[in-house]
């Protein structure tokens, strides 16, 4: 290995470290602000003291039972969606690919609405239905993209079709439902982090942790598959296996987040699009995308809670607005014209 290659690798590693460190610093700042603000304000020093067991009863309850689980869920969901978006965009070689475009979020949402409005399910059963809906869409996408030559295009076209079908099914169920139930379903479909219990956070954390090895393996294999099927095969990598592992991993990460907080839009699209130019060397940047996704969702949840005085809105409203503006900006820049 030549000295120039070693220098390039060292430079890339340093830049990655700086970027990830900066993003994590932003996450820490957002966490402090999130735990401090609210109807019962707590100074940052008191928040730190409370986290280490030194706060009074009211501070302990507010921090550990109200604000911390919501913050933890925002970070977990943002990281999972950021990683899922990076995997899908790299697999399909399309910076606009993501769970929303491929119908994964729509499948989870349609299944959850059916369970809520038709079957009368709620709580854990609603989460199970949403998770199952996302995985049904995944199975269909894998069948549609089973041919190696055009698998990426087939996945995108099949995903767009499934997304529209899920929207149609969801709308049909909503217009036939009672007003009260339809309102509950609409709030869930928007995506919200409000009233997050610790068992929800623990469940999502366990699933994300179990998916980490597959995420790491996919991030290592995908650059090799992009060199072509023959080259990848000569290096001992099967593109069909990589496609299956990558899609299943992205679906699991997306479905578990949809199951507990609803289909939060645009995080999976925006996080990789921000991470790639920050890294600046054409890497997939799955870990960086996860960190950016966590920061984006935590920031969006702050806006959702405090942008309108005296009123909190679902975080999905904020991510939808931010994502739409970001997409318009992306399309208006040179990077957008190269999509």
From TrEMBL:
Spans traversing the lipid bilayer: 18-38, 71-89, 101-119, 125-143, 155-177, 197-222, 242-275, 281-300, 312-332
Localization: Cell membrane
Source organism (scientific name): Microbacterium insulae
Keyword Transport applies: yes
Stated name of the protein: FecCD family ABC transporter permease
Family indicated by similarity: Belongs to the binding-protein-dependent transport system permease family. FecCD subfamily.
Membrane topology designation: Multi-pass membrane protein
Protein keywords: Cell membrane, Membrane, Transmembrane, Transmembrane helix, Transport
Top-rank lineage group of the source organism: Bacteria
InterPro entries: ABC_BtuC-like, ABC_transptr_permease_BtuC
Record's keyword annotation contains Transmembrane helix: yes
């Amino acid at each position: 290995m030549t000295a120039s290659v070693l220098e390039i690798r060292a430079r890339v590693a340093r830049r990655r470290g700086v970027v990830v460190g900066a993003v994590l610093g932003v996450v820490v700042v957002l966490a402090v602000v999130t735990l401090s603000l609210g109807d019962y304000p707590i100074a940052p020093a008191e928040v730190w003291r409370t986290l280490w067991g030194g706060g009074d009863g009211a501070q302990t309850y507010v921090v550990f039972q109200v604000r911390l689980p919501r913050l933890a869920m925002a970070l977990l969901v943002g990281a999972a969606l950021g990683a899922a978006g990076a995997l899908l965009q790299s697999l399909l070689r399309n910076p606009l690919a993501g769970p929303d475009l491929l119908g994964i979020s729509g499948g989870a949402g349609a299944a959850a609405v059916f369970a809520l409005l038709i079957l009368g399910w709620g709580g854990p059963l609603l989460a199970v239905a949403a998770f199952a809906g996302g995985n049904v869409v995944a199975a269909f996408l894998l069948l549609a993209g089973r041919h190696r030559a055009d698998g990426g295009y087939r996945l995108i076209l099949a995903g767009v079709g499934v997304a529209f079908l899920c929207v149609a099914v969801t709308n049909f169920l909503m217009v036939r439902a009672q007003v009260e139930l339809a309102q509950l379903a609409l709030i869930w479909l928007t995506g919200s982090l409000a009233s997050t219990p610790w068992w929800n956070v623990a469940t999502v954390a366990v699933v994300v942790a179990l998916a980490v090895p597959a995420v790491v393996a996919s991030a290592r294999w995908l650059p090799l598959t992009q060199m072509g099927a023959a080259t990848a095969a000569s290096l001992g990598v099967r593109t069909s296996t990589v496609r299956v592992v990558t899609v299943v991993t992205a679906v699991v990460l997306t479905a578990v987040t949809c199951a507990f907080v609803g289909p939060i839009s645009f995080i999976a699209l925006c996080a990789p699009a921000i991470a790639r130019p920050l890294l600046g060397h054409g890497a997939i940047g799955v870990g960086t995308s996860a960190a950016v996704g966590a920061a984006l969702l935590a920031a969006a949840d702050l806006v959702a809670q405090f942008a309108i005085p005296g009123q909190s809105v679902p975080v999905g409203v904020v991510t939808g607005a931010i994502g739409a503006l970001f997409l318009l900006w992306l399309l208006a820049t040179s990077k957008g014209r190269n999509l």
